[in-house]
Each structure stands twice: as C-alpha cells, then as structure tokens.
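[[Per-residue structure]]
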Amino acid sequence: MQGLTPARVIHLTPNVWTEPFWAATAEHRLVLPRCTACSAYRFPPTPFCWRCRAQDVDWIEHDGHGTIYSFTVVRHAVIPDMADALPIVAAVVELPDTDGCRVIANVVDCDPSDVHIGAAVALDWYDVRPDETVPVFRLV
C-alpha cells in the first residue's frame, strides 16, 4: 500500500479503555464505544461519557464507510524514518450514524490531489505486526 506510516514508527500502547478497540482491529473489525446509560458514542475511547459521565460502554461494530472531515498531506519528513513513505495523507474521517464520531487515519493508495473534504472513503486495514493492526481508508 502506498501512503503508509512505516511499521517501525508505529507503537501502539493500549490501555484499559482502548484495549477492546485494538483487539478488534487485530481481527479487522472497527468497533466504537457507546455509552450504556445514554447511548452516546465516545471516540476516542474515554473513561467517562462526555454527555452523562457514566463509564460502562457497549462496543458497536461499524462498517467503516465515512467521509473526509479534514486532512493534511505530509510532504516533509520531520521524523527521518518517514522519508521513504512520503507523501502521506493523514485524514479525520467522520463516521455516519455515530453522533459525529471521527477517526484519524491515513488515506492510502491515492494521489493526494484527489483527496478533498467530503470525499467518501471505505475502511481497510494495515497489519503492522502480528496482532497489531491499524485502520486506514481508501477513496471510494
């Protein structure tokens, strides 16, 4: 895939609140936490609901189709290990039917000039290492 952050730069550090998300990504599934008290989605996963302050969540599976809310094209390697991967399109993707949840991920295998706000994208997966996978998106 073109436009991927090199694996040697990616260091996942799951905690008690994000572990279910990362465990699902290793299975190529996108799950989002939804408050059991008020049904508000809260992503990224947090200890307390932003709406009602409850802690319990259900993990709801999402198909990963969305639209680009914002993006930037990285063309300069601030980290030397990134130089061979550039350009990289880093995007904020809004997921429908989630009360405005947004995921930050790379948009891969595209010409950066084709990316624009509002563009439709579909979820794909980047297997960084065994049992470590991150979401990426492709233009639809």
